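ugh ok fine here u go
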Amino acid sequence: MSPAKQVPQEIAVLIVDAFTALPFRGNSAGVVLLETPREESWMQALAMELNHPETAFLVPEGDSYHLRWFTPTREVDLCGHATMASAHALWEMGRLSGRSPVRFRTRSGPLTARKHAGGIEMDFPAQPATAVAPADVPAGLAEALGTTWNYLGWNGTDYLIELESEEAVRALAPDFARLASIGSRGFIVTAACDSPYDFVSRFFAPAFGINEDPVTGSAHCCLGPYWAAKVGKNQLVGYQASARGGTVKVTVRGDRCTLMGTAVTVLKGILAG
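structure:
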């Protein structure tokens, strides 16, 4: 008798738009629900195939999930919108009850997400920036951005750049090739804004294969502490002024930040793995 043919494992894959209530807005993420770990090279290849700003890979571990994030070109340490997309996908697919918070184990430590009346609430580490001394300003940064700034900070991962106005942030057209040559994951550009938002921002990460990220949760772990100190309140609302656009509510709690937004599924599929 010939051996039984092994049936490939079917892997659920979702595309979720985060920090928006409308499809095709906010920031899109792939979410891959695995039963067992897969090789890093396989995850990177799939992230490149899906070609979203981030793809999240989840593996159940006891009462939590091991979560890793990949851009089309590399793994990253922290991603807000793909974490929100992951929690949304777990609830949507019935892997967890909506009454249960989601606990993630990640390269940035434990993260949690829970349903809230206004959407999905996530607990993240704060990543405040420290002002960059004039002697330490990266060569060519002003030329790459095409602008000067009121403030330049560094949080160990990204540069934080405050411009003079919302209009200056929206009009910015960086030289991405030059920006990619400067040693940083990304560049958070921001300015104060009129109500209903406290600030606007944009995020550029060309060295990670993303010229402009549509809505960046992790950047708000830096933006939150910065603007909280400037405006004197710890609950803020930011708008990321990319072409897709998205709103992030931030509450600063010492060395932690609560990020809140909404998410919507735009595609569900099966990957024959």
